[in-house]
Amino acid sequence: MTNALHPTPADPTRDPFALARALSGLHFIGGRYVPAVSGQTFPVVNPATGAEVAQAALGDAADIDVAVREAARAQKDWARMPARKRGALVHQCSAILKAHSEELARLIALETGKALRTESRVEAGVVADIFEFFGGLGGELKGETVPFSPTVLSVTVREPLGVVGAIIPWNVPMLLMALKIAPALVAGNTVVVKSAEEAPLTVLRICELLNRVLPAGCFNMVSGFGPECGAPLVSHPLVRKVTFTGSVETGRIVSATAAQKLVPVTLELGGKSPMIVFADCDFEKTVAGAITSMRFTRQGQSCTAASRIYVERPIFDRFVAAMAERVDAMVMGDPLDERTDIGTIISTGQYEKVRAFVAEGQATAGATARVCSAMPTDPALTKGLFLQPVIFTGLTKDSRLVREEIFGPVTTIFPFDDAETVLAEANDSEYGLAASLWTNNLTVGLSLAHRLEAGLVQINQNLVVQANLSYGGVKSSGLGKEASLEAMLEHFTHKKTIMVNMG
Ligand code: NAI
Ligand code: MG
Q1: Same domain for 105 and 239?
Q2: Most exposed of 123, 246, 260, 373 (fewest Cβ within 10 Å)?
Q3: Range of 162's domain?
């Protein structure tokens, strides 16, 4: 059943095209779908075909103001609700998200070009898991008793910050939204999310699913562009906390504005993550690990992509050849097709950006580019933003391809001779988000793990962000952590001290 204010189907649907149309032209504010104050919209494009699949509401400062006031109004009652009760409601969202996970996976595949089987279903599953995890943490919002004087009872209590402004990107929008919304809500805050202009639909659908359980106004979502819609959210006087995932460049702008208002920020920014492979590793497992680490199934559009791979010299040639062979066997095609391993780049802007990096690498003297995976042959996909994965060897460490985040299916591989040199090379980066080490010598592995400048180091695996494990970078990769109990406490509450003189 649908109506004008509630145009989306109650039951899970397998038709992402119809769902995209139903979600057209809408924000989600105060528990319902609403059009932009200006009435304006902008197109949402299927990157696999170039076809427009929906229009999104074009939000600006006026929409942000309505949403933030709605969140501020809802926050009073929400914060008064017992913490475990808030958690229980967030936990209930998980069941609804699970029931709709195939629907969400198909919709995100449509709007982002991420392959359904290898990426989109995985993301939908993680989203439900994040709500389940944080939903169980309401009772952990504990304070302390503080020794001060026998006649003065001194305690601390955890209080919410108020309205949280959350800005998310397009690469894993559902997951990144969940990492912000779920802990913020359990801690007693309310939220306004600014979705990414390239991927506003799936997160908008999720709002309505959450609203089946959570009180109206607890979370609100506005779509629009960065400077016109994201910036007013950061600067809004009622927003008491900003959490952002995206580029370093935009992170700096967001952080500067928040600093003027003296509100805390959490920043999850880019990466140029090293993967270090020792000759004593389990070879086949590590080659497979390199494919996963580079997130080739997501076209490399990941902040933790292993875009600098260092391989110990005795196995270097064999490793590069085995890796290229495996990537070559991956199927590029329609993101909604079950056979597809690799879908498309998100937008023409990103497509051109990545192509410029590849062209620069190919024009570099001494460099070799192994271009892998056949382009799709389906005539329906000729306008799709498909880009063949490229594995570069022979680049020097001052190359832009080695220093800058490409955010595409492009990796660089280097031989190394000793652990100290490779550690120095791995740390020689502006970024410090993630790193992985592959070796059967845990003494060497652990020693390097302690000295790598990164927020997350994994030995013999390279998983994406997981609920319960703090996640976030050092250096230019960000500020603060997400995904864990500590992250919820540190970033979505403040500690109030209360003293009672009993003397
Ligand atoms: P971006 O950082 O500009 O966009 C991320 C979010 O910030 C979007 O919702 C955008 O609308 C918003 N935004 C942009 N300007 C803003 C402003 N002045 N105030 C408030 N919000 C603003 O990233 P973009 O342009 O999509 O991609 C550029 C590069 O950033 C990529 O090539 C990649 O290297 C990196 N990136 C990193 C991500 C990560 O997961 N760490 C995610 C997306 C992009
Ligand atoms: Mg940008």
Answers
A1: yes
A2: 260
A3: 16-269+477-497
SS3 label, residue 497: strand
Percent of the chain scoring above 70 in pLDDT: 99
Domain co-membership, 464 together with 321:
yes
- Tell whether 151 is covered by a domain: yes
Could you tell me if 161 and 46 lie in one domain? yes
Query: Same structural domain for residues 55 and 94?
Result: yes
- Domain shared by 173 and 281, yes or no: no
The CATH number that applies at residue 24 is 3.40.605.10
Q: Which residues contact 40 (CB under 8 A, 6 or more apart)?
A: 57, 58
Residue 83 CB neighbour total at 10 angstroms: 19
Contact indicator for 210, 182 with CB cutoff of 8 Å = no
pLDDT at 208 over 80: yes
Cα of 86 vs centre of ligand 1, distance in Å, is 31
Residues 342-376: tens digit of each pLDDT: 999 999 999 999 999 999 999 999 999 999 999 99
Examine the domain organization and report whether 63 and 180 are in the same domain. yes
Same domain as 282, residue 245: no
- The mean pLDDT value of the chain amounts to 97
The average pLDDT across 132-142 equals: 98
Quick check: 4 pLDDT over 70? no
Residue nearest to atom 21 of ligand 1 (CA): 230
In a domain, 114, yes or no: yes
Nearest bound ligand to the CA of residue 230: 1
Q: What is the pLDDT of residue 7?
A: 87
Q: Is-catalytic flag, 482? A: yes
Residue 230 contacts residue 255 (beta carbons within 8 Å): no
Total number of domains constituting the chain: 2
- pLDDT tens, residue by residue, 287-318: 999 999 999 999 999 999 999 999 999 999 99
The yes-or-no verdict on residue 63 having pLDDT over 80 is: yes
Quote the longest CA-to-CA distance of the chain. Answer: 84
Span 444-482, pLDDT tens digits: 999 999 999 999 999 999 999 999 999 999 999 999 999
And the tokens for 60?
A: 């600006």
CB 99 within 8 A of CB 34: no
Residues with CB under 6 A from ligand 1: 167-171, 194, 196-197, 225-227, 230-231, 234, 245-247, 250, 253-254, 268-270, 303, 350, 353, 405, 407
Together in a domain, 238 and 328: no
